[in-house]
Inverse folding.
């Protein structure tokens, strides 16, 4: 599997690490991350519409996102925030909440580092098993992550000008 040109991906056993540089300051990138009014605009692939975005941003707080695909099917995600360190780090669990997948939780760690006026974003996805990681990657997850990060790149730029 090759990474999209604007994203670097490393895979080791049950972990996926991906990086991306944003041409926006870390504070703006972070501001777009945990707020429903912003998340609705950038989270998920372009062809999906977010129909539900609930965020209780605190350690132990829960979130739930539901996407509707072009086929009309809904794709729900949920999780719990474990650590929040503005503007540098978010740690949370994620579950793709559909039959057959809802018992498989992954741990997501997102870090934001200042780099020459921009932001280096590093995402770490720690799956419960290598098999879970393989199954997730086979769904086109890397392409979906790349589209999501493209949309996030556009969103902080809009915040800066608005």
């Amino acid at each position: 599997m090759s990474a999209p040109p604007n994203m670097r991906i490393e895979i080791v056993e049950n972990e996926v690490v991906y990086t991306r540089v944003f041409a926006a300051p870390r504070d703006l990138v972070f501001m777009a991350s945990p707020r429903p009014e912003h998340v609705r605009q950038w989270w998920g692939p372009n062809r999906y519409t977010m129909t539900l975005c609930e965020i209780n941003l605190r350690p132990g707080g829960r979130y739930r996102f539901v996407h509707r695909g072009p086929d009309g099917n809904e794709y729900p995600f949920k999780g719990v925030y474990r650590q929040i360190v503005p503007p540098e780090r978010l740690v949370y669990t994620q579950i793709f909440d559909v039959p057959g997948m809802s018992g498989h939780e992954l741990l997501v760690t997102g870090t934001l580092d200042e780099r020459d006026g921009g932001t280096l974003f590093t995402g770490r996805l720690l799956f419960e098993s290598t098999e879970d990681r393989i199954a997730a990657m086979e769904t086109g997850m890397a392409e979906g992550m790349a589209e999501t990060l493209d949309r996030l790149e556009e969103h902080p730029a809009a915040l800066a000008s608005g």
